[in-house]
Amino acid sequence: MKKLTTAEEQVMQVLWKLEKAFVKEVIEELEEPKPAYNTVSTIIRILEQKGFVGYETVGRSHKYHPLIDKDTYSNQFLKNFIGSYFSGSFEKMLSFFMEKNDIDLKEMEELMKNNK
């Protein structure tokens, strides 16, 4: 699975939220300053080429939808991140974040208990 650029990820976040949308609806959900219609349309076509987005024809327009769900992308992104920065070790990543964010073992146990 290819990594998304920041702009592509912003568009995908909107499509994951809306599930199906026309370019105009995607633009409405993006933060100010709103990008131009052609910019968003181009990003969506790139996402389509990468296999992230599909569409259905509605009249003379296209309604776009994600082909990859958010959890699948997030999981793959996290695996790549851990692989690139922590030699594939979840334990090393967890240790790093505990150290850098001053989290003690008791707090970590609480986090893990609350997320089961």
From TrEMBL:
Pfam families in UniProt: Penicillinase_R (PF03965)
Entry keyword annotation includes Transcription regulation: yes
Organism superkingdom: Bacteria
Keyword terms: DNA-binding, Transcription, Transcription regulation
Annotated family: Belongs to the BlaI transcriptional regulatory family.
Name recorded for this polypeptide: BlaI/MecI/CopY family transcriptional regulator
Upper classification of the organism: Bacteria, Pseudomonadati, Bacteroidota, Cytophagia, Cytophagales
